[in-house]
């Protein structure tokens, strides 16, 4: 991570009680990256906070990894501040799991990652740094699985957040997950069944497109259809292992987490949000633009002021879109009425 005079990225270490007993033995001591804006050490004011959630197979470090011609997230935010965007503190929790991700949910098959973020990460940030603790100065954003996590946490916890940005989020499970099921089922049978997949998970290839279909299906099963009695993996697959036939009762459980369904019940809780921002590429390889359109329509039906932007592009190499969401969040936090809110 780059430490420069104009801003600072600080690493904290959390020994998490919420993750200590996670069922798959993932580390419960986690690094937490925090971006402190350029003026943090030259003045005494407090700052808004945005929680930034990584996508599937990502972690806190993923935001800062070198990529040719693409600025790391601290460099990106520095450039925005230099252009006049108001300053914010950015928080990057590590919610990576053995299967690739937690969807930022509590699950008896992977661990309590929702509680980890809300009950341990945010309080530590508030204790350690000069933050504005009122919900009017709290945002959550993410890309892909992180976008799912952001919009899900926002709908579940409107008492904590007042701004949310979902970039190419996992929305409309029928299109974004179900197409992987035939390939995932074939891979499970290739490796000798789900028990062998779990027992030999460390040796299973994880780099190809078909590998991703398997890994993503395993991870989402652990998050959306956990079953502590189903050992050794602790979750139900959404299809029959032998034939690949859809298990409708399990699929129904998955759908209870689908934001396009959840919004019909909880969308109204976003009505007083200062910013609800969604975007997606018009050529997203996972068809996520369909879910984004549906979700945006449902939000408008619920009376939620919503910004939805569809841009030319796919699911990958879209970090430039963070310029839009960060700018909009910062401007919202810096409006006159929020400045006058009791801190």
What does this protein look like?
This protein is of the alpha/beta class and 343 residues long. The chain has twelve helices and ten strands. β3 (49-53), α1 and β4 form a beta-alpha-beta unit.
- Number of alpha- plus pi-helical segments: 12
Spatial shape:
globular
Strand order, main sheet: write it out. 1-2-4-3-7-8-9-10
Low-confidence stretches: 337-343
**What portion of the residues fall into strands of 2 or more residues?**
15-25%
**Mean pLDDT metric:** 95
What is the helix content? Answer: 25-40%
- Which class of secondary structure composition applies to the elements? alpha/beta
- How would you name the oligomeric state of the polypeptide chains in this document? single chain
Alpha carbon gyration radius: 20 Å
Distance between the termini: 31 Å
Number of strands: 10
For the biggest sheet, the summary is: 8 strands, mixed
What is the N-to-C succession of helices and strands?
A: EEEHEEEHEHEHHHHHHEHEHH
Question: How would you concisely characterize the structure shown here?
Answer:
This protein has 343 residues and is of the alpha/beta class.
Core attributes:
343 residues; alpha/beta; eight-stranded mixed β-sheet; two-stranded antiparallel ribbon; 12 helices; 10 strands; disordered C terminus
What topology does this entry show?
Elements (H helix, E strand, L loop, with lengths): L7 E8 L13 E8 L12 E5 L19 H10 L6 E4 L13 E2 L3 E2 H16 L9 E6 L1 H12 L6 E5 L5 H4 L4 H10 L3 H6 L9 H16 L23 H8 L3 H8 L8 E7 L6 H14 L5 E5 L10 H12 L2 H4 L4
Parallel strand pairs: 3-4, 3-7, 7-8, 8-9, 9-10
Antiparallel strand pairs: 1-2, 2-4, 5-6
Helix pairs in contact: 3-9, 5-7, 9-10
């Amino acid at each position: 991570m780059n430490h420069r005079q104009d801003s600072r990225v600080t690493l904290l270490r959390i020994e998490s009680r919420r993750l200590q007993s996670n069922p798959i033995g993932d580390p419960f001591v986690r690094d937490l990256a925090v971006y402190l804006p350029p003026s943090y050490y030259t003045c005494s004011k407090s700052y808004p906070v945005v929680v930034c959630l990584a996508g599937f197979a990502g972690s806190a470090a993923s935001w800062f990894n070198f990529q040719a011609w693409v600025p790391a997230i601290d460099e990106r935010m520095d450039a925005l501040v230099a252009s006049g965007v108001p300053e914010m503190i950015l928080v990057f929790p590590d919610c990576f799991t053995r299967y690739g991700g937690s969807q930022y949910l509590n699950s008896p098959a992977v661990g309590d990652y929702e509680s980890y973020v809300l009950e341990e990460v945010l309080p530590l940030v508030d204790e350690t740094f000069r933050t504005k603790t009122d919900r009017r100065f709290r945002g959550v954003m993410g890309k892909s699985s992180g976008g799912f996590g952001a919009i899900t946490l926002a709908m579940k916890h409107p008492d904590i957040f007042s701004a949310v940005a979902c970039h190419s989020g996992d929305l409309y499970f029928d299109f974004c997950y179900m197409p992987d099921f035939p390939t995932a089922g074939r891979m499970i049978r290739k490796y000798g069944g789900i028990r062998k997949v779990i027992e030999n998970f460390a040796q299973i290839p994880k780099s190809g497109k078909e590998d991703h279909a398997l890994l993503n299906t395993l991870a989402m099963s652990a998050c959306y259809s956990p079953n502590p009695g189903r050992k050794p993996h602790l979750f139900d697959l959404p299809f029959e292992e032998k034939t690949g036939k859809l298990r409708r009762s399990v699929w129904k459980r998955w759908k209870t987490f689908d934001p396009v369904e959840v919004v019909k019940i909880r969308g109204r809780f976003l009505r007083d949000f200062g910013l609800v921002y969604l975007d997606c590429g018009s050529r997203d390889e996972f068809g996520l633009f369909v879910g984004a359109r549906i979700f945006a329509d449902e939000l408008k039906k619920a009376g939620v002021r919503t910004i939805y932007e569809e841009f030319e592009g796919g699911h990958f190499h879209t970090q430039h879109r963070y310029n839009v969401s960060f700018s909009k969040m910062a401007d919202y936090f810096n409006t006159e009425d929020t400045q006058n809110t009791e801190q």
